[in-house]
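Lecture notes, unit on protein representations.

Consider one protein chain, 306 amino acids long.
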Amino acid sequence: MLDDQSIEHKLREILSDENILINEPLNNHTYTKLGGKADFFVTPTSYKAVQDVVKLANQEQLPFTLLGNGSNLIVKDGGVRGVVLSLKKLDDITVDGYEMIAQSGARIIDASREALAEHLTGLEFACGIPGTVGGALFMNAGAYGGEIKDVLKEAVVVDREGNLLTLPADAFDLQYRHSNIPEKGYIVLEALFELKPGKYDEIKAVMDDLTYKRESKQPLEYPSCGSVFKRPPGYFAGKLIQDSGLQGKGVGGAEVSKKHAGFIINKNNATATEYIQSIEMVQKTVSEKFGVNLEREVRIIGEDLE
């Protein structure tokens, strides 16, 4: 593997200086406000640059991590080695007829608002999801009865070798909060959504209602990773946690929200370790009380502090 100076030099052959940050604190890029430093934090502005970074990582056997907008993610306190790739600068959204092409770094909320502006229905469910388009496809994000697989027609991805592929929706094995993108090692660059014509006032009324439900029920005033757990078959995670008497409890500065038991908030300068320990405490308690194993929806990456 190259040394850090050689890595930096090769990255600068691909990316301009403003798109490379060294020893970048990842708590600047996560909704939990947690996480140590990335050795190299890169923000490509073209698909070719993404391909070239992937090829460089392969050639030099560099550790390589893709970061969305950090909404459904916990980065450990020791940070992330190698290259962390952020697609936040690839954020264009275009509409042609009933089809929308949204780049990976665009917020899925903004895609839903653009659909509203164009009088198109199908993305109302996404009006309160805080992630990017790429992150939404990565986990087949959904809310209030809708999910990405309902509207996805195809997507452009980069594979592990750095090849650019256009794949139909059924190539991604989209299921409840699941896709095969992690296993395949794909990097989503853009998604093509197939929407339907609708009436502006009706679409807006649905979005306003969903926004009210979200803002009134979720603890948006504190940093958090959003909903921590997947819905277990036959149950609701938040209800199980609430019935376990865990609201207001946690480890260190992390706490199970009193407003919505499905959220763990960074209430008082928590560390990532404390946040993860709080998740594990919830899982253990719910398992002991109800015999239900709560599966994490949130991803955890990085290294512990030595």
